[in-house]
Design brief:
It is built from six helices and four strands; from the N terminus they run αββββααααα. It is globular and about 40 Å long. With 117 residues, the chain is mainly α. The relative contact order is 0.14. The strands form two sheets. The protein has a two-stranded antiparallel ribbon. Strands 3-4 form a two-stranded antiparallel sheet. It is 47% helix and 10% strand.
């Protein structure tokens, strides 16, 4: 890789909390060097959904990047598991969130949605 390519692609790379370098556009993120909860996060659902607008994908990636930089890998794994069913077609509107809020379990409400609001 040349220096020019490295500069162009530099924003794609970030360092997660465990110290590993991650490419935010890979479909699987390796957040831990060992086999623990959250060692590998599968984000292929972001790329397999044809209904997901690119702008929404970037918002979701920004949030996952923030979590991977600042939180434990298991927290990132839990967030991925909790939001995948709701965001496969894009970031939902506040009205949609209000309509499903009462049907969500407490553990889905607690702390998982605050990053998307």
């Amino acid at each position: 890789m040349t220096n020019t390519q490295l500069q162009v692609n530099k924003s794609e790379l970030f360092v997660c909390k465990s110290g590993l370098t991650i490419n935010r556009y890979e479909s699987v993120w390796h957040l831990l060097a060992h086999k623990g909860k959250g060692a590998n996060i599968n984000l292929s659902w972001l790329y397999s959904s044809s209904n997901l607008p690119v702008s929404d994908r970037e918002i979701i990636l920004d949030i996952f990047t923030f979590y991977a930089r600042t939180k434990a890998a298991s927290t990132v794994a839990t967030l991925n598991y909790a939001v995948t069913p709701f965001f496969k077609s894009g970031v939902i509107s506040l009205n949609e969130l209000k309509s499903i809020w009462s049907s969500l379990q407490v553990n889905q409400k607690k702390g998982r949605w605050t990053s998307f609001l």
